Amino acid sequence: MPNPGFTGSPLNRVDHIRQDLEAFNRLLNDWRGRVLGLDGLDPMVSAEGTLVWQGMADVSLDLELILLGLHEDKPHFVPIVEAKGGPPRSPAVWLALATLPAEEAAIYGTARSLIDWHNGHRFCGQCGGETKTFRAGWGRKCGSCNKEHFPRTDPVVIMLAEHEGKALVGRQAAWPKGNYSALAGFLEPGESVEEAVRREIHEEAGITCGAVRYVTSQPWPFGGSQLMIACIAEATSTDIVMDTNELEDAMWITKDDARAALADAPDKKFGAPPPFAIANTLLRRWVAE
Amino acid sequence: MPNPGFTGSPLNRVDHIRQDLEAFNRLLNDWRGRVLGLDGLDPMVSAEGTLVWQGMADVSLDLELILLGLHEDKPHFVPIVEAKGGPPRSPAVWLALATLPAEEAAIYGTARSLIDWHNGHRFCGQCGGETKTFRAGWGRKCGSCNKEHFPRTDPVVIMLAEHEGKALVGRQAAWPKGNYSALAGFLEPGESVEEAVRREIHEEAGITCGAVRYVTSQPWPFGGSQLMIACIAEATSTDIVMDTNELEDAMWITKDDARAALADAPDKKFGAPPPFAIANTLLRRWVAE
Q: ipTM, 2 decimals?
């Protein structure tokens, strides 16, 4: 079973160095330093389908660098480029993800989430003052009220409701024709994972659920930084009542349906999510149970 | 086995009403509406040890109201009071939690997290402009750049490393003398739950871990809004090397040690976390395994 997407980064995050300005400055002057090559927000990809790393001298002095971590003693950085407010993910990044080795996708995902966060937090939410980078790019501090801000990650629940061997999947109108996936939604303040799973399935599909079991998790770096928490919930009802603002369609599938979709079989009932999406991992785990 | 703390709210969050300004305004004019009684940020508590609900007429017209949800057709609100920047939790709220029924603690927790978030997001992180409440108090919108902001919840991993029937617990210097708990830390962008668990145990105690299993989750409303994700990790080493910035002490305990602590036995080896903290639930689940 492959690992969930965007996991397996080989970088050591060296939190103690982030908190030590002198040590961080030494790394900024380390000639072995490597800087992630970006094309806008997308990764530069080599002819071999891997990430492109540049030397410290290749980077504009105007750009601040985030310390992603150490690997084989070499510091790895990414510049805080300006986000131009395009779509959350471009066709180019989708293509890149088809060839990037898993551990490189994990590095890119971390970098991408941090860049997004910096762009959205140049001002202090508490007082409106300008913020400045600190902690080696893992925080911003307000120049007016001194409030410290740290990168945000939003927990998202993504789940299959299950009933008598069948699982519930749905599709949004904007997705490629025929594609279905697990239902998903943001966890809200004051909820446990289990409560958010039951609420989302009920809101989107009108299905009530009992016990919820955790399956796995992965980060997701598009449209911010999300923690995807994949679960399977025992449905206690089966009549689908869709929230048509969220879903265009929803249906119960068998494990054979899921197998055909995951294998991209010619007679498949629906198109499966891509391998780097946790819904793919979740369907695989469900089929294997 | 009791449910994790701050879960079990009976309120229906009625997301569809938040998105419907007319429907929200009707609820604001519903004479059956109930408003959560607060003393600063702490809950008002009745002689019976329960939450105090006020009528709509009891609330200052200057205060904006968040729609917490519906229960028995009655809308329940909480006012967005100003946070005075005191300690993240007062002795009064700790006392209140000893008597509040579980489902009322869950309601208070949701309210408290939302109030904290509003206070910290009166300005837009993207442009510094002033933000205004929208979506029935479940969002803020920038008056300058129109960016929409939604409540933040930070995922935190909290875990026991386990080795040959013993579990690793630690204590921070600021805690009451003799108290120990599970190690914990914020999940970072680009990490899965499992990766964050392994990283935190290694950073704080120098212990390496292999497989990680999820146990349960709960919200935590102090110092913002946190999603506590409780796990048990298989330790592959046992020599503790503490990060003394994080921990004052760490030790391996047996299930008998944990039982004595949870029972508050006179000869207990350490003081256990309170019942509404997920570390308490985690220790109970571990002992019961």
A: 0.97
CA-based nearest distance A268→chain B, Å: 31
Range of the structural domain that residue A240 is part of: 154-288
B152 touches chain A (CB under 8 A): yes
- Judge if A177 and A229 occupy the same domain: yes
Which chain A residues are Cβ-neighbours of B111 within 8 angstroms? 190
Please give the Cα distance from A97 to A89 (Å, whole number).
11
Domain boundary among A105, A122, A139: A122
Q: Which of B93, B118, B149 is the last residue of a domain?
A: B149
Cα separation, A149 vs A141, in Å, equals 6
The answer to the question of residue B2 being in a domain is no
Partner-chain contact B190 A154, CB within 8 Å: no
Give the nearest partner residue to B188 out of A106, A151, A191, using CB atoms. A151
Shortest CB distance from A124 goes to which of B16, B123, B203?
B123
CATH of the domain at B216: 3.90.79.10
Residues 6+ apart with CB under 8 A from A22: none
Total beta-carbon pairs less than 8 A apart between chain A and chain B:
157
Residue range B87-96, pLDDT digits in tens: 678 889 999 9
Average pLDDT of span A97-115: 96
Of B138, B188, B218, the CB nearest to A192: B218
pTM for this one?
A: 0.97
In this structure, is residue B1 part of a structural domain? no
Q: Which two tokens stand for residue B54?
A: 């006020």
Q: What confidence tens digit (pLDDT) does each residue in B191-220 have?
A: 999 999 999 999 999 999 999 999 999 999
- Which secondary structure element, helix H or strand E, spans residue A57, and what is its range? none
Assign B85 a pLDDT band (cuts: 50, 70, 90): low
Instruction: Examine the domain organization and report whether A171 and A115 are in the same domain.
Output: no
| Distance, CA of B116 to CA of B108 (rounded, Å) | 12
Contacts of A136 in chain B (CB under 8 A): none
Query: Tens of pLDDT along B91-118?
Result: 899 999 999 999 999 999 999 999 999 9
Measured CA to CA, the distance from residue B36 to residue A263 in angstroms comes to 53
